[in-house]
User: Which sequence fits this backbone?
């Protein structure tokens, strides 16, 4: 499902040249798609209910929690990309989000954007599966 639309993955050095906010821009879409796949995999439901389930994954605090879960498992390069995203100077913070959570969420999205651009779809799914498993353990099934 996550075939890179660029047809050829970018070399990591080239992908690293993108600004962290550009990486987060693409990573936000990749993460959202993974979340929607996960939610729909549990069966059809009214769209409002599907949306509510998805929001539990994409809220800034949920993404910040995911970062804390993943940090010990990230490579040095992945940690660097995440840190660049976290430290990026954003002009906007969501109205209902803690600024620190929002920054970590941006870091997670930058990481997912970077992995997508270099064609590491297996790694994307591996990291996302860890997030899902932890969420299911903490709160029961989606």
Assistant:
């Amino acid at each position: 499902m996550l075939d890179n639309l660029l047809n050829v993955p970018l070399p990591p050095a080239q992908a690293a040249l993108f600004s962290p906010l550009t990486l987060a821009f693409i990573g936000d879409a990749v993460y959202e798609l993974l979340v929607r796949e996960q939610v729909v995999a549990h069966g059809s439901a009214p769209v409002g209910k599907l949306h509510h389930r998805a929001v539990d994954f994409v809220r800034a605090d949920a993404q910040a929690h995911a970062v804390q879960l993943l940090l010990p498992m990230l490579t040095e390069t992945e940690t660097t990309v995440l840190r660049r995203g976290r430290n990026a100077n954003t002009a906007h913070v969501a109205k209902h989000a803690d600024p620190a959570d929002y920054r970590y969420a941006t870091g997670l999205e930058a990481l997912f954007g970077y992995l997508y651009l270099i064609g590491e779809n297996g790694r994307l799914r591996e990291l996302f599966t860890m997030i899902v498993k932890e969420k299911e353990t903490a709160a029961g099934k989606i």
Remarks:
- The helical segments are 12-15, 20-41, 47-58, 60-70, 76-87, 99-117, 121-139.
- The radius of gyration is 15 Å.
- The longest helix spans residues 20-41.
- Residues 135 and 141 are 8 Å apart (CA to CA).
